[in-house]
């Protein structure tokens, strides 16, 4: 496939994935209520733990707002759960072939698409995502829970990653391990979507 065909295919995927917002909002609404009930937390307490406003968390809980992936990360951190716990479910059969096109979604109208290829497994301590950054996307993420390590491998396009205070450029096939519990970020300075895998490892006893 040439670059333009690639771009068209990725744009078409992005457009398709845009329809998944309501699914995410519904699932998240139910899941957040359950998590909060489990912990016996008030909305105020949960909002403080997640570092988001009570109004925003309330909207998400009522399914009135679809959070970005960055916001999902903060919520996961607040509840001490994994990011994939907050995304729509998919078959957990170990032998099943994972197709990112079936699980890729675009929360909110953000320029980052997320596909949970392998949901968090407490016994193994990690989850694997395929992430797509549309052109111009840039985000500096606040630290995730202590000990989180991300392993990024570029599949298509060029990705710039902020780690240890400086931006590194990764080409297709190149990878980088970075401390997710410090400030880090991703950006796509190019004109085509960037697709990469992110294996996120949680320290033992966290995100369980
Ligand atoms: Mn991160």
Relevant terms:
alpha+beta; 5-stranded antiparallel β-sheet; 4-stranded antiparallel β-sheet; 6 helices; Jelly Rolls; globular; 9 strands; 208 residues; binds manganese (II) ion; disordered N terminus
Largest sheet: 5 strands, antiparallel
Shape verdict: globular
What is the tally of beta strands? Answer: 9
Query: What is the CATH homology-level superfamily?
Result: Jelly Rolls
Question: Which structural class should the secondary elements be placed in?
Answer: alpha+beta
* Mean pLDDT figure: 85
Q: Give the topology string: H per helix, E per strand.
A: HHHHHHEEEEEEEEE
Total helix count?
6
CATH class: Mainly Beta
| Unreliable parts | 1-19
Strand content: 25-35%
Descriptive notes:
The structure is a single chain. By secondary structure, the chain is α+β, with helices and mostly antiparallel strands. It has one domain: Jelly Rolls, CATH 2.60.120.10. It contains 6 helices and 9 strands, in the order H-H-H-H-H-H-E-E-E-E-E-E-E-E-E. It has a 5-stranded antiparallel β-sheet. Strands 3-8-5-6 form a 4-stranded antiparallel β-sheet, with no helix packed on it. Strand 5 and strand 6 (166-170) form a beta hairpin. Helix 3 packs across helix 4 and helix 3 (43-50) packs across helix 5 (69-79). The longest helix has 19 residues, at 21-39. The protein binds manganese (II) ion. Manganese (II) ion binds at residues 141, 144, 150, 180, 184. Manganese (II) ion binds next to loops.
